[in-house]
Amino acid sequence: MPPRRYSNPEADSKLADDRKQKRKESNRNSARKSRERKERYLTQLMKEREELGRVNPQIEMRIQMIHSNYLYADKENGKLKREVEKYSEQLTQLRDLLRLIEMSTGLKLDIPELPDPGSTLKSWKLPLLPLPGVNAVKTFQLV
């Protein structure tokens, strides 16, 4: 059998009060540290918000420039495609004329075959999709 302890009610009460006081102090310290962590986190978030506020207009301006360049390149690409079609048609007509001359004169002319314009002009155009999180109307409104 374990030895029996005799308890002193005053000592037990004092010990319980000391434990209670230590627990209160520990809880206060934990709460203070938690508030400090939250304050540091909030300060960090505010700094990030300020930085994003500075960077965001620069990104929007860059997107507008890229979009403007894309529209210009797309327009020029359309012009070049129309020129290719026009010159391909002219070459076809000249080739047909040379064949007609060849048939009517009996001369053997070296008439090269024309490449198919569709095979030489591959469309590399990518669709311009709105970026996530970017207000397309505001960002891409060009005057």
From TrEMBL:
<keyword id="KW-0238">DNA-binding</keyword>
<dbReference type="GO" id="GO:0005634">
    <property type="term" value="C:nucleus"/>
</dbReference>
<keyword id="KW-0805">Transcription regulation</keyword>
<dbReference type="GO" id="GO:0003700">
    <property type="term" value="F:DNA-binding transcription factor activity"/>
</dbReference>
<dbReference type="Pfam" id="PF00170">
    <property type="entry name" value="bZIP_1"/>
</dbReference>
<keyword id="KW-0175">Coiled coil</keyword>
<dbReference type="GO" id="GO:0045893">
    <property type="term" value="P:positive regulation of DNA-templated transcription"/>
</dbReference>
<feature type="compositionally biased region" description="Basic and acidic residues">
    <location>
        <begin position="11"/>
        <end position="27"/>
    </location>
</feature>
<feature type="domain" description="BZIP">
    <location>
        <begin position="17"/>
        <end position="87"/>
    </location>
</feature>
<keyword id="KW-0804">Transcription</keyword>
<dbReference type="InterPro" id="IPR046347">
    <property type="entry name" value="bZIP_sf"/>
</dbReference>
<keyword id="KW-0539">Nucleus</keyword>
<dbReference type="GO" id="GO:0000976">
    <property type="term" value="F:transcription cis-regulatory region binding"/>
</dbReference>
<protein>
    <recommendedName>
        <fullName>BZIP domain-containing protein</fullName>
    </recommendedName>
</protein>
<dbReference type="InterPro" id="IPR004827">
    <property type="entry name" value="bZIP"/>
</dbReference>
<feature type="coiled-coil region">
    <location>
        <begin position="77"/>
        <end position="104"/>
    </location>
</feature>
<feature type="region of interest" description="Disordered">
    <location>
        <begin position="1"/>
        <end position="39"/>
    </location>
</feature>
